[in-house]
Amino acid sequence: MAAIIEVKDLVKVFDGKIRAVDGVSFEVEEGEIFGFLGPNGAGKSTTINMLVTLHRPTSGTAKVLGLDVVKEANKVRQGIGLVPQDLTVDDDLSGRENMVLQADLYNVDRKDASARIEELLRLVNLEDAADRLVKTYSGGMRKRLELAEGLIHRPRLLFLDEPTLGLDIQTRATMWEHIRRLKKEHNMTVFMTTHYLEEADSLCDRIGIIDRGRIMALDTPVTLKRSLGGDVLQMSIDDGKDFMPVIQQVPGVVEVKREGSEYRVKVLKGDTAMPTVLKAIIEAGGNVSSVSLQRPNMDQVFLEYTGRSLRDAEQTQSGDRGERFARARAAERRR
Amino acid sequence: MLRETWALYVREMKHWYRIKIQIFMALIQPIVWLGLFGQSFNFTNLFPSDLPGFDISQVLSGAPDYFSYLATGMLAVIALFTTMFAGMSLVWDRRFGFLTKLRVAPIPRGIVPVSRMNSAVTRAVVQALIVLLIALGFAYVPGLVGLTLSPDFGMLDLLGIIAVLTLLAIGFSCVFISVALAVENQETLFGLINLLNLPVMFASAALFPLSFMPSWLQGVAKLNPLTWAADACRTFAFHNTAPIFPVWQEVLFLGIFAAVMVGISVLVARKLLD
Lengths: 335, 274
Hints:
The structure holds 2 protein chains of 2 kinds.
Chain A: E1 3-14, E2 18-29, E3 33-37, H1 44-51, E4 59-64, E5 67-68, H2 73-79, E6 80-83, H3 95-105, H4 110-123, H5 139-150, E7 157-161, H6 169-186, E8 189-194, H7 197-203, E9 206-211, E10 214-219, H8 221-226, E11 231-237, H9 244-248, E12 253-259, E13 262-267, H10 270-283, E14 288-294, H11 298-306, H12 310-317, H13 320-333
Parallel strand pairs in A: 3-8, 3-9, 6-7, 7-8
Antiparallel strand pairs in A: 1-2, 1-4, 4-5, 9-10, 11-13, 11-14, 12-13
Helix pairs in contact in A: 3-4, 3-5
Chain B: H1 2-18, H2 20-40, H3 56-59, H4 66-95, H5 98-104, H6 111-137, H7 155-182, H8 186-202, H9 215-222, H10 225-238, H11 247-272
Helix pairs in contact in B: 1-6, 2-4, 2-6, 4-6, 4-7, 4-8, 4-10, 6-7, 6-11, 7-10, 7-11, 10-11
């Protein structure tokens, strides 16, 4: 499989001092869903904006579909779709009129255009609302229309900048469904950014954790979680007896900690280790009153690689750096 | 390229006719001016009509009265005022993200100003023609002065007026679009538009004859595209025999003004939208 996005040492500096993206390198393979996970202001959107030709990199190179994003910008534009974070649909047109305009802008063959518009409106469940003005749409409907617009020219590569930001839980689930279906049915490559951990975890084939303009880790969600040292079995054993030696002998157990009747057992694979650990305890005469399996989640992964939890990161970002950064980005966006 | 330009033109026109109040607002100002200013300042009455050898129409570029003079100049002013909305709509598109869509789309950057210019010109000409009809209609309202055209005013004269207004609107819409592309802050833009509009309007022959002005102002006004357009309109409307410049020259100047401004706006778009 060939790399559909190749990024090398990409840097974006705003106002000569704010390093929004600070030397980022990565590759995205054709057909995968690749996610950038990080707090607001981490540099996710700035990276996307450079890849879709909206921002010029300060230094470094980026190739999309094998084309240089600066020198061959117009060819890149023809081959990619973008669902931006800030909506770009026209409020004073109907949903269908927006789609027709998009088809014209991307020079979609007129013969195909109307059939494709119907198909896409159906895909995002907007066929009933298609002839209403967009200003009457809800936030989720606008986002879905934006997704349909991004697909009008059947791009090989789709960029989704915070596709579910500000959507309610059901709408978010439908959005995920659409994204999964696109990948499955059209083998479309998706590059997305998100600051929802569960979104990155459940959608993405690979995740880059980005913080303060740098990639801190990059791998599959499973590997990232496993790198934390596996799962934890939390259990209570009622007898006063010490079962530590018994548990330690079970294959796959990495570490055991005991506090009274509470045991924390670190294991490599929780789902297969749990039955054998329980069996060993019962055979030794132990009476297990409760057991739970804790798998590391993306929040812990984030904590591990950035040294702070995602929630903390969001808060400090909104303090100094985040605010200056947001201002610089707003200024850039006005261009 | 034509397809994208047409698509964006249609979008702009839909915005225009869907927001009926906008058309109304754009027309109300010139009508109020004509109705109040044009009627009360009708200083034709100040001059004794029996003064030997004096003909008011010589002062007023061939217009039989000041109202007719003002009404024809107002056509050019409307073109100016309508085109300034082209700049404002660009600011809104930037603010509401639509400009991002255009920047990501695989279209030549020059399409952004050119499509917008086309719709601004359509609006300017349509609105000017509506005002022309209203000014003519004033003649049938008791107590009001109406626009009196030359007795042999014909279809060619009307086409001439439309051509002149088109060139003027092309030029000024590109001025406002270029400014809107270059200025990020919308307050600054509105300030700039106001700063531009009023001097352009007053330092021209649109509202008052040049002969009323001090000579330095006459010099400035003669360089003003609004003067060329208003004067050319009067030549067509009243078959004026003593225009400021011959009408072919005025049309030529307007053509050069339009071409240069289109060129500038395309260059600005290429530079700033990429």
